[in-house]
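Figure 6 in text form: structure in, sequence out.
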């Protein structure tokens, strides 16, 4: 684990740069120290040679034979008399530097070179450390500004993540958290807008039946003795109440579907049973309106779906077809299986849908100006669409004015 931490630190771009600087600094320091040492050795050799030349010249001037001088400079033995002589002359170990001019010169030059070198490298090291912490501070200031924007709900800027290293891994985690918070805020905003729109839609759609109920109640109240009038408007009140009930139930279903509160219980069912269940309550209506519902398909075919909800979707489409089909009209339901899809076709020979309406029929409460006299509240097709798409299906429509409409419900085949 510690190795991973060290590797993560090394991958940090700024730390990597600082470590590279320290490496180059160390190499430069060692190289300079080596060159300086060689230079000092050479300088010491030159000074020592000058010292020997000066001593030999002085001895020769004093009449000391050359052979004796030469032997003296090659001698490596140290005697007590020799040491005592130097001490007596003030040239011993504890002597003043001024008494040894060549050594004094070498000492000054070596000290100056060493001091200048150390000061230079300390200056370079200080600049490198300053630049590293200055860049680090700029990075922290940038992150602080971005985090402050996140706190204020502004996610337009992003933390730097295009480099490796421990600190950038932290930035990446913060970015993931910010993305989650942004998504959550967006979901909450959409939920609030959805709730607002839903309440607005329901209140708007309830205005008409409520106004009608108020008017019917006033009429009944003003003519309590007129049994025919009471009966007539009581029936109208029943229709309005039924319309309100249908509206509220449909809106609740759509709302539950849109918010994901409904979990479809998919299981294999026979398509013939699904269709029969879907149109069970509509056959009586079709018969009373002199219309037909024809079912044609392989009765043994199986489809994996939620039978109750899928049946409601099919029933809403069939009801819509009956609403827009004249007496003597036919609503036909067929199905087919392909290697990739299972399709249910619901067609009619009714009025058809005009081109400008076909892209809006799945919108809530949408009523075409060409069908204001038909039944319905404009929620059947949107509810059917939500149910089909909630099961990963697709609903599509084709229509031709005066010839009829074809709805196609497509489901992926379970391979």
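Output sequence:
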């Amino acid at each position: 684990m510690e190795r991973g931490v060290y590797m993560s630190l090394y991958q940090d771009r700024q730390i990597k740069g600082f470590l590279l600087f320290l490496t180059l600094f160390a190499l430069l320091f060692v190289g300079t120290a080596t060159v300086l040492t060689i230079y000092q050795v050479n300088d010491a050799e030159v000074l020592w040679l000058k010292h020997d030349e000066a001593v030999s010249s002085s001895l020769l001037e004093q009449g000391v034979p050359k052979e004796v001088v030469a032997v003296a400079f090659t001698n490596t033995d140290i005697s007590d008399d020799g040491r005592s002589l130097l001490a007596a002359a003030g040239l011993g170990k504890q002597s003043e530097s001024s008494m040894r001019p060549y050594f004094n010169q070498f000492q000054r030059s070596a000290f100056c070179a060493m001091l200048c070198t150390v000061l230079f490298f300390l200056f370079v090291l200080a600049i490198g450390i300053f630049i590293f912490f200055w860049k680090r501070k700029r990075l922290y200031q940038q992150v602080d500004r971005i985090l402050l924007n996140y706190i204020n709900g502004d996610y337009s800027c992003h933390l730097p993540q295009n480099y490796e290293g421990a600190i950038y891994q932290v930035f990446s985690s913060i970015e993931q958290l910010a993305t989650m918070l942004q998504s959550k805020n967006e979901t909450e905003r959409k939920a609030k807008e959805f709730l607002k729109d839903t309440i607005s839609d329901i209140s708007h759609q309830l205005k008409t039946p409520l106004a009608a109920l108020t008017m019917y109640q006033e009429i009944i109240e003003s003519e309590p003795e007129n049994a025919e009038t009471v009966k007539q408007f009581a029936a109208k009140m029943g229709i309005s109440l039924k319309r309100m009930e249908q509206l509220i139930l449909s809106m609740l279903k759509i709302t539950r579907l849109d918010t994901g509160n409904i979990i479809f219980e998919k299981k294999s069912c026979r398509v013939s049973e699904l269709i029969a269940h879907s149109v069970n309550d509509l056959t009586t209506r079709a018969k009373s309106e002199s219309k037909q519902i024809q079912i044609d398909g392989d009765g043994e075919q199986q489809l994996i779906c939620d039978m109750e909800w899928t049946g409601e979707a099919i029933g809403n489409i069939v009801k819509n077809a009956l609403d827009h089909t004249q007496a003597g009209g036919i609503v036909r339901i067929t199905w087919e299986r392909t290697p990739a899809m299972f399709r249910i076709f619901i067609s009619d020979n009714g009025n058809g849908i005009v081109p400008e309406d076909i892209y809006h029929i799945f919108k809530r409460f949408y009523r075409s100006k060409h069908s204001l006299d038909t039944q319905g509240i404009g929620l059947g097709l949107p509810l059917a669409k939500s149910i089909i798409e909630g099961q990963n299906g697709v609903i599509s429509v084709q229509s031709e004015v005066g010839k009829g409409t074809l709805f196609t419900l497509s489901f992926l085949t379970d391979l």
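Caption detail: The mean pLDDT is 79.
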